[in-house]
Amino acid sequence: MSALDPHPDEVTCAAGPAVAVEVLGPREVPLGGPRAMTVRRTLPSRQRSLIGAWCFVDHYGPDDLDMVMPPHPHTGLQTVSWLFTGEIEHRDSAGHHAFVRPGEVNLMTAGRGISHSEISTAASTTLHGAQLWVALPEHARHGEPGFVHHAPDPVRGDGLEARVFLGSLLGVTSPVETATPLLGAELLLAPGTAVALDVDAGFEHGVLLDTGTVRVAGHDAATHDLVYVPPGSARLDLVAGDEPVRLLLLGGPPFGEAVVMWWNFVGRTHDEVVAFRAAWQAQVHGGADGSTYADGHFGIPVGDDRAPVPAPELPHVRLRERR
């Protein structure tokens, strides 16, 4: 998914000491033009920029709408697509053509640069899911683009059903490789269910609540909240309220690198992001050397002839870098 905000915020992300559990409420962000869809964004927020390497959390639906995300670029990150309802067709410039379906994860690695498009299928009348980004560390962020699809088997217990799509939880390890240690799982809890999850004490964790209410590490969260839990405990306590609960559990060790995010680019400096934007604009509009869209650094999504999305204007200040 693209961050199609017409005036995207500059976001400087820097790991810092965690001191307490935080309950982060969402803010509504419209994506796109006349057919815009509205998402609930909880990361980045004013209080927190990253949870492990997770740097972006958009939560949307259930909505009766079409998703139309024309070709757009990414650098320095991985996109993690997870649906609860609906179906989305994915095409990217590394040659991958796939579908996002409920209970199946699509992980796209942008690396040095990729373009992709996403469109809901004709059979999909309701969309409901989450779009997540992972910042790539220095050693991986200039690598080749790639794509992985995985359909995890459910793990069931007393009042609990889980699908582990990244990392390890409940004795299950996802085969999907990541550049930094990560945890990503969908959990379904029956009303009143209490679970104590064995987790990595070195991880930060985020609990994104899709439905119901839940108590996370002793803190109450409502539907659409994201609860941040700092490192330090090898156990994560969850207690469901009076209704069925569905949530996403995200985690990873503190990232430890400063990250500048703007539009669809993750970089390290102002100048780097400016260069990413210039490369995409040259691809969209044609370069001074006579190059065309097909010749550009980010490539063209396979089988998609729709016009690409131009980058918005940069702010009239230098993008800040904080370490």
Tag the structure with descriptive keywords.
Jelly Rolls; globular; 323 residues; 5% helix; mainly beta
Folded structure, characterized:
Belongs to the pirin family. It comes from Nocardioides plantarum. Residues 38-134 form the Pirin N-terminal domain. With 323 residues, this protein is mainly beta. The protein has a single domain (11-252), classed as Jelly Rolls (Sandwich), CATH 2.60.120.10. Helices cover 5% and strands 45% of the residues. It is built from one helix and 27 strands. The chain has one helix spanning 270-285, and strands spanning 11-13, 22-24, 27-31, 37-43, 54-63, 68-74, 77-85, 88-92, 97-100, 105-109, 114-120, 127-135, 146-150, 155-157, 160-166, 168-169, 172-173, 183-189, 194-198, 204-211, 214-216, 219-221, 226-229, 235-240, 245-252, 259-262, 265-267. The strands form six sheets. Strands 2-23-20-25-18-15-14 form a seven-stranded antiparallel β-sheet, with no helix packed on it. Strands 3-4-5-12-7-10-13 form a seven-stranded antiparallel β-sheet, with no helix packed on it. β16 (168-169) and β17 form a beta hairpin. The protein starts with 10 loop residues before the first strand and ends in a 38-residue tail after the last helix. The relative contact order is 0.20. The mean pLDDT is 91.
